[in-house]
Structures are given as C-alpha cells and as structure tokens.
Amino acid sequence: MRRGKGVIGIALLVSVVLAGTSACGGHGSASADSRNGGAKGGSSGRASASAHPSPSHTRPSGPPMLLETITPLDKATVGVAMPVSVVFTNPVATAARANIEKHLKVSASVPTTGAWHWMGDKRVDWRPQNYWKSGTKVRINADLKDVPNGSGRYGTHGYTHSFTIGDDVRADASVTGHTMKVTRNGAPVRTLSINAGSAEYPTWNGTMAVIDKQEKVHMTSCSVGISCDKGNANYYDLTLPWDVHLTQSGTYVHFSTGDTNPGSGSARGSHGCVHLSLSDAKWFYGQVKQGDPVTVTGSPRAKAPADNGYASFNLSWSQWLDGSASGEQTTATL
C-alpha cells in the first residue's frame, strides 16, 4: 500500500524538516530497477541541520550554499546500517566534491572504515564498510563556512550532529519462505509469518535500513499510479496501522486489512510491502528504529537502489567507493 506524497522541507539557516514519499506501490520507485545507485538528490525521513556560525568576516561573493538535511537527527539513537546523509539545496559540481568531502568530518568512538558516496549532485552519504558496532558514538562536523560548491555558491555555516548506534536489531525476510526472522545483538528473538509482494507488484530485494515509522499511514492506489478506478481489483484507499518505512518509493512492513492472516497458507500478495498480522505488526513496530537493516530475499525484483531511502548496503564496497571523490577513510577519534 502507499500513501500520498509528502511535503518536502525547505532549507533554513538553522533547521529543516524533510518528508519523503511513503508507499506500497509496485512501480513507483525513486530509481529504475536496473540501477545500483541513484541520481536522485532527495532523502527520506525527518532530519535537521543545527547551525554553528563562525566569527563574522568577509564572505566570498555569491549566493549561499545551504544544507537541506543532515540525517540522523542530532542526539538520535539509530541502527547499525544507518548512513550519514547530507542533502544540499543546490547541485554540487563534480570538481568541488572532493573538497566538500574533506570538510565533512566523521568522528567515532570506535575507529570505523567508511567513505562518502554521491547520490547524484545534491546528496552525499557516508556509510561504514561493514555495519556499525553497537554502542559506537558518532559525530559529523560539516565545516562548510566559505566552502564553494563549484557553481558560484559558498557555505555560510558549520553544522554538527552527534548520534549513537543502538542495539544491533536485524530482520531477514524470506519471500518464498513467508517468514521474517528478527535478531537482537546476534541472538534470535522471534520468527514472524509474512506475505510479500505479488508477481505483478514484487517487493524490493536487498537490505533497506528503516527510514522511519508511524502508527498510522493513509495509503491509496491512485496516489502512486496503480489505479484510481474503484472497480479495479488493485484499487485501495486505506489507513493502516504499525507502519515501518523501508524505501522512499513506498515499501513498508505493516499490517493490512486486505491480508489479515499472512503466511504460507495465504496465497494473497501485497503491492510490494511486507505484511504482518496485526499483533506481529505492533510487536515489530516496537522493536525497530531508524537505521535497523531489513533484508529481503527470494523476490523476483532487483535490489532496491542505494538512494531509495537508505539502501546503501545494496552496493558492494567497491561500488560504493566508485561514487566517492576522496576514497576510503577511517573515522577520526571521538
């Protein structure tokens, strides 16, 4: 299922909010199935950029370069698959990206190997080579005062976000097995019965870090181009509970009133989401947080593109480095 398109936040000097599309649509995606990485500059979920002005001095001529979002939120606790995601309001020229990356400093309490990767010309994400270690404290210093974007704009502020990597919670969903296994810090917690996408609207394969979650989401087939005809078998207009958001194009783990008893005994498929029973959906909602990895296997669909939400681990490390202007690095000591 899918709800209508959200409102995109506008960058301010001090803080911003960015809300992405949320949906369960089979064909509406942030990127084409054939791509491994995206050219979209957008991000999903809620984020803010906290400004720390530098002392006043003569600023280079030209309009300001501002940030639209920095994710995660300052002081957040997130999962082991969460990237640092920085979105600019205007395109960053290719020639300026290495210098931009130099001024985006990632520090951690546990030394961590990682790299930046550009998702088009407005969004750059930093992910570790492997998942973060639970308990790691992380800080991003975006020291962008007077830094050029290569297109005549210059940074006006520095921004700092600090966050913590929480418990290592993972969910592994088997489309063919109709199960989703949940673990916490390496120990099995529970195996849930699921239904995933139908043959016509298959679920994305691969690993998708949780973007956000909501207790209720209004989802319609018309808003995502599936059908606006109430007589069509694929038409829906529903408000559904316990929604864990996986992709910007609209993949959720949730309960659906059209599929109340998911599992191997049910032949009913979704429009791309992962369906749980009502009690299981409420339980799962209470277990996961932003950045926890949900991995789907067994679907006929490709892996979700890296920019479709926070699906960065769907790229190999060499593919990730191909999108970096400065290459592999180890975090500074926090």
From TrEMBL:
The lineage of its organism: Bacteria, Bacillati, Actinomycetota, Actinomycetes, Kitasatosporales. Residues 25-66 are annotated as: Disordered. The keyword Signal applies. Pathway: Cell wall biogenesis; peptidoglycan biosynthesis. Residues 45-60 have a biased composition (Low complexity). CDD domains: LDT_IgD_like_2, YkuD_like. Transmembrane segments: none annotated. The keyword Transmembrane helix does not apply. This is L,D-transpeptidase. Residues 169-297 form the L,D-TPase catalytic domain. InterPro entries: Big_10, LD-transpeptidase, LD_TPept_cat_dom, Transpep_catalytic_dom. It comes from Streptomyces brevispora. Pfam families: Big_10, YkuD. Keywords: Acyltransferase, Cell shape, Cell wall biogenesis/degradation, Peptidoglycan synthesis, Signal, Transferase.
